């Protein structure tokens, strides 16, 4: 898949985003989706890094690819913990299996968590206080975005003690004390990461998943939306290119 390398091509992506609103399904909507700017750094097959900007609808399909971690979040690499904004495609990320995978894609966007979108929905964050899950889990406060999932099953979702771990949305862990919702009224920079294979990584001492859209993410979307979405990823021409999920997701197990 070709990746735009200039502002001119980024502008073309913006035009494509406008064109998708001509999709009959979108035209039937009472409220058209807002547009949001997304920034991508991707490792290309020739070893170079492409930095691009995209304009796309502020829909869950797109926002979930960018809104997992806040600026300052520490990700474990072969060089130790590195702030997520300082990661660069090609950096080696430590995974839950003890292996390292290269970072091939980093996406970022900015949003105001307390500001409601066209449907009246906000984008609250989840704050994990230090030691919420035990000693140094996390090591210090970790603030995760609405798209983040932890490899852990909350007690209220377990059938018995032998239940396997599931990739669970961070919202399901909120207890109002050590883990709570927060909605800053100011702009927050959000990030997500993609590795060659879907994996669980160490983020601030907790086990979070890397980005994967899910095997059925594009089943019910129009062709223009599908094309616009896949243009965000230079390594993927189809959902199958993201590979299988490393672990089952809680929302798929219900």
UniProtKB/TrEMBL annotation:
Domain annotation Hedgehog/Intein (Hint): ranges: 67-214
Pfam families: Hint_2 (PF13403)
Domain of life: Bacteria
Name of the featured protein: Hint domain-containing protein
Lineage: Bacteria, Pseudomonadati, Pseudomonadota, Alphaproteobacteria, Rhodobacterales
């Amino acid at each position: 898949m070709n990746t735009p390398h200039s502002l001119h091509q980024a502008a073309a992506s913006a035009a494509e985003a406008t064109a998708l609103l001509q999709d009959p399904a979108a035209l039937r909507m009472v409220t058209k989706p807002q547009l949001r700017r997304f920034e991508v750094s991707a490792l290309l097959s020739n070893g170079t890094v492409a930095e691009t900007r995209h304009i796309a609808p502020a829909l869950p399909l797109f926002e979930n690819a960018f809104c997992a971690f806040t600026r300052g979040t520490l990700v474990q690499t072969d060089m130790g913990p590195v702030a997520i904004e300082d990661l660069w495609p090609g950096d080696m990320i430590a995974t839950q299996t003890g292996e390292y995978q290269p970072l091939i894609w980093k996406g970022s966007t900015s949003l105001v968590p307390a500001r409601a979108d066209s449907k009246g929905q906000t984008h609250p964050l989840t704050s994990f206080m230090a030691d919420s899950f035990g000693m140094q889990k996390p090591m210090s406060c970790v603030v995760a975005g609405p798209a983040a999932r932890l490899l852990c099953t909350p007690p209220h979702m377990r059938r018995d003690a032998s239940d396997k771990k599931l990739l669970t949305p961070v919202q399901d862990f909120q207890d109002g004390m050590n883990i709570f919702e927060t909605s800053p009224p100011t702009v927050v920079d959000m990030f997500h990461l993609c590795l060659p294979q879907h994996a669980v990584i160490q983020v601030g001492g907790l086990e979070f998943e890397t980005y994967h859209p899910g095997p059925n993410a594009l089943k019910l979307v129009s062709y223009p939306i599908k094309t616009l979405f896949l243009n965000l990823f230079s390594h993927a021409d189809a959902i199958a290119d993201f590979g299988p999920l490393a672990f089952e997701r809680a929302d798929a197990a219900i």
